[in-house]
Amino acid sequence: xxKRRHRPRVVLAVVVAAALTAAGCDAxxxxxxxxSGSAKPSPKPTPLWxxxxxxxAAVGDSITxxxxxxxxxxxxxxxxxxxGASPEVDSLAVRLLxxxxxxxxxxxxxxxxxxxxxxxxxxxxxxxxxxxLVTVMVGANDACRAxxxxxxxxxxxxxxxxxxxxxxxxxxxxxxxxxxxxxxxxRLWSQGRTSPLGKQVWQLGICPxxxxxxxxxxxxxxLRRNTVHKRVEDYxxxxxxxxxxxxxxxxDGGAVFDYRFDTTQLSRxxxxxxxxxxxxxxxEIAYRTVTAERx
Length: 295
Known about the structure:
Blueprint: H1 2-22, E1 56-60, H2 62-65, H3 92-105, E2 106-108, H4 119-126, E3 133-137, H5 140-143, H6 154-171, E4 176-179, H7 185-192, H8 196-202, H9 208-211, H10 219-244, E5 249-251, H11 255-258, H12 276-291
Parallel strand pairs: 1-2, 1-3, 3-4, 4-5
Helix pairs in contact: 4-6, 6-10
């Protein structure tokens, strides 16, 4: 009799234990996992974009060489927005690395007069330094030709930029790239043409496709300038699209193109290239883009 009375209690205990096991409950209660002294937190993933790279290599054209920023018809790399040591510019490299670091770990491979077709060769030289960041500013010379018909076709511009990015990625898969937009050449014309000296200098052959016959505003002159302006916009679209395909590339979003340079930010010798003040503005734009939490 005593055994029959206790059997329902035993059966009930077994059923409750089975139900608790099926529900995933444990001694802690609820759905909480049991504490374990051996559990380790998962490591944080490495970010794709390092906002404080430790070395910088610059490629591009005369703007990155600081042409006509310090002396007439001369490169002035110390005033370069990308790697220059001038305290008046406070270049991107100086802002990222400090003055001593910039002197040791930044390199300028830009060449005055360079076009996009020259970029693959510059990239080949830059990757030998294994920089953590490469800056690119090129395209103005592709638009600044003797006539609009001589401008670099957009397809060629794209192919050369894609070739450059492939070469960089093959050599340095994790190096970051900052791409500056091509400046608004039409705005430079509208600013520089207010200077009689500037217009005289332009007659020597500075960007004739845009700056030639600076005072002419007839239909043909306007068509010429608008054609060049449209080509610059197309170049910038290429820079944006190609950069967007690379997870370690940041385009400036058109910031250089949109910047309203005034005569104080243009070279007093050619009223086209950036002055020291203009170089400082370019450095600000680059630093803002490189150090932003998100592009």
